[in-house]
Amino acid sequence: MNTAPPLVSVMIPYYNCKAYIAETIESVEQQTHSNIEIIIIDDGSTQEHRDYLQNYLAGKPHIRYAFQENQGVSSARNYAARLAGGKYFLFLDADDVILPEYTAKAVAILESNPDCKLVYPQAEFFGVQSGLWEIPPYEDFRSLLMGNKFPSISFHRATDYRVLDGFDESLDTHEDWDYWIRILKNGGTVYQIPEILFKYRRRSSQDSLIDKLSANPELNRLNWQKVCNKHQDLFLQYNLGYVDLVHLICNMKQHDTEQTQKIQTLENEVSDHVELTLFANSMEQKNMEQTKKIQELEDKLGKLKQAYDNARYRESMRALHREQQSDSTPSPAVSINGHAMLRYIYKSPSYQIIRAVKKLNWKIKKRPKKPLFFPTTEIQSYQEAVRILNSTAWSLLSPIHFLYKLIKKEK
């Protein structure tokens, strides 16, 4: 029973790439999968680059080498595939690098999943550009028709290659997209290994395929159209024909217009809200300032009232003193009953109401509570009692006091 791991053919098309080919070959030789053949096709390099590669390969008899006149990458790949004997194929550009575990993990997936057509990893850039190359996971065949989803280093089966007769050599670019469409058009699954196992080089010379397509959009558009024309039936089957795309574009434009209008409406609402917020903040600030001024004025008014009451009290005391001087015999009621009269008023319901209102006012204005005033002399008590009885508050509450006296049966 043969237990040897399946043979993998790694094929490298080479064209004037002596600065990077050694690093690429070494990345293949460092694979943990043990059964690999390496095939390099020189696609008409200049003598300098050809001599460098041949000298480098002189000490590596396990690598197969062949030369052809320059015919393009599709022709070089097809030439290599005709020489290959592996069960699984991997086409690797001469300046890129695969990481050691890639081959082993891809082969394990293909071996355990007979319906799997393609296996590819996550990737990153290196060279003059670094960072993750965001290759999306495969969704479905329709998404593939809308644009290439796979890197050229995707593992696939040699039998699929031979059934399809390889790459279309009439395409200058997008030959790999055309190749993946033909592999998957009759079904099959695709697996993306969720780790970085491939490094795509960005050169300072900007002569990679991505750089060339960016610099020449007409070439990109022309070969894209060639692929669409070639698979016209598939594009129509998946509603990606000319009319479908025109309708799609019109709908997208309409959607963009509606979204733009919504955004403008929201921006206007936000602007209005900001203006209202600023106005409200301004009004709140003004209200705070006015409240502070009112509080200051109320404090001043309270001080003036207190000063006025004090002045009235002092004046009444002076008047009383003058009366005492003019009449040495004071009123018996005043001299004898002043304290009793004042205590009687303090205990009355009318004054209790007056006192409760004063306490509430002090609490609202956060002022300290004043104790009841108890003069030291009968005359001062009499004077304070007269002041209370002559006050507006007492006059307003006199009916309550009248009822109080009736209830107490007092005269």
Automatic annotation (TrEMBL):
Glycosyltransferase 2-like domain mapped to chain residues: 9-115
UniProt superkingdom: Bacteria
Coiled-coil blocks: 280-314
GO molecular function annotation: transferase activity
Keywords from the UniProt entry: Coiled coil, Transferase
Pfam families: Glycos_transf_2
Alphabetical list of SUPFAM superfamilies matching this protein: Nucleotide-diphospho-sugar transferases (SSF53448)
Nucleotidyltransferase recorded as keyword: no
PANTHER family in the record: GLYCOSYLTRANSFERASE (PTHR43685), GLYCOSYLTRANSFERASE 2-LIKE DOMAIN-CONTAINING PROTEIN (PTHR43685:SF2)
Protein name (Swiss-Prot/TrEMBL): Glycosyltransferase family 2 protein
Species this chain originates from: Neisseria animalis
